[in-house]
Structure formats: C-alpha cells, structure tokens
C-alpha cells in the first residue's frame, strides 16, 4: 500500500464504527488488484486504482493496475490539482478532462455510512463517449468494493458477470 499525506476533509476516514476498511483492504490486497485490472479492462481505461483515506488524513492506494505512475498526480502531488481530492470533497463522481496532458480522469467516491472514505479512479487516454453512463457504473463498482471490504469477502460471480456485461454491451448499453 502506498500512502500520500494530504489536507483531506476531516470527516473522510476509512476507519470508524464498522471497523477498519484499511485492514480489510490489506487482507484482500490481491483481490483489489484483480478488481482494478478488471475495471481498467472493462471500462477501457489505461489504468485504474482504489484509494482509501486513513484516520490521519492520508490517501492510501490499496489496489492499482498497473501500478500507475500517475498515482501521485491523481492524489495531488507536485503542486497539481488533485482529482481524487475533488471527488472526496464533493462526495460525487467526477470526470476531469485534460487533467494531465490529454488524459481524462474519472473518479467515483467510495462511501461508507454516508461518508466518502476513498475513491475508485481511472485514467483514459481517449475522450469519453458515454460519460453520463460511465459515472453511475463506476459508483456501482465503488459500492461493491465497499460492500466487499465491510464483509471481508472476495468478489463473487455477480461482480464479474456485471463487469462482463459492461464489456460485451459497451458502457452505453449498461444502466
């Protein structure tokens, strides 16, 4: 896991009354890497990542495919704006066009108990044709990630079936 310190909203934390999502993420690290690989492939992204906020206000990468060089960018290093922090602060999915050269960032909040505790994000090299459909699909995946972390479960066949449906039918057909 990779930690980066940021000035995050005080309410954002992946630790709380439901236990530590970070502990669960450590236990499910291989599964989270598989999820990011599946997400990148099925959403047509160059790379995907799952980032959680720890109790000290640090953004912690708990899964990425491949381990992206842009992780620091997405988290807001080198004085650049931080798309992940924008998603966390707004508690809403977002697309940032031209965020790093011509790349397109898409991020969806990971929510637990009404709080944003992390971000599912990806970077695309091509313009997004179906952005209005992509974000709800990403929110579904983010909700599924949080459900798996809370339950300490590995992704089941339903998750992979939905991801396959997205891939076969294309983003525009999934809703």
Descriptive notes:
Helix content is 39%, strand content 26%. Helix 2 packs parallel to helix 6. With 175 residues, it is of the alpha+beta class. The chain has a single domain, classed as Beta-Lactamase. The N terminus is likely disordered. It is globular and about 35 Å long. The relative contact order is 0.18. It has a six-stranded antiparallel sheet with strand order 1-3-2-6-5-4, sandwiched between helices.
- Rounded to an integer, what's the Rg over CA atoms? 15 Å
Order of neighbouring strands in the sheet with most strands: 1-3-2-6-5-4
Please give the CATH class.
Answer: Alpha Beta
Low-confidence stretches: 3-19
What's the total count of β strands?
Answer: 6
Total domain modules: 1
CATH architecture annotation name: 2-Layer Sandwich
Please tell me the overall pLDDT.
77
Quick tags:
single chain, 175 residues, alpha+beta, Beta-Lactamase, six-stranded antiparallel sheet, 6 helices, 6 strands, 39% helix, globular
Please sum up the structure shown.
With 175 residues, the chain is an alpha+beta fold. Helices cover 39% and strands 26% of the residues.
């Amino acid at each position: 896991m990779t930690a980066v310190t940021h000035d995050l909203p005080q309410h954002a934390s992946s630790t709380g009354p439901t236990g530590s999502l970070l502990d669960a993420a450590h236990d499910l690290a291989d599964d989270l890497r598989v999820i990011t690989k599946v997400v990148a492939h099925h959403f047509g992204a160059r790379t995907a990542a799952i980032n959680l906020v720890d109790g000290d206000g640090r953004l912690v990468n708990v899964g990425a495919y491949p381990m992206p060089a842009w992780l620091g960018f997405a988290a807001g290093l080198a004085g650049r704006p931080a798309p992940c922090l924008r998603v966390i602060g707004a508690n809403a999915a977002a697309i940032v066009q031209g965020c790093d050269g011509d790349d397109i960032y898409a991020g969806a909040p990971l929510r637990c108990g009404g709080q944003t505790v992390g971000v599912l994000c990806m970077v695309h090299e091509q313009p997004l044709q179906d952005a209005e459909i992509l974000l709800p699909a990403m929110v579904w995946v983010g909700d599924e990630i949080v459900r798996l972390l809370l339950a300490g479960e590995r992704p089941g066949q339903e998750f992979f079936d939905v991801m396959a449906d997205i891939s076969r039918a294309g983003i525009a057909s999934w809703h």
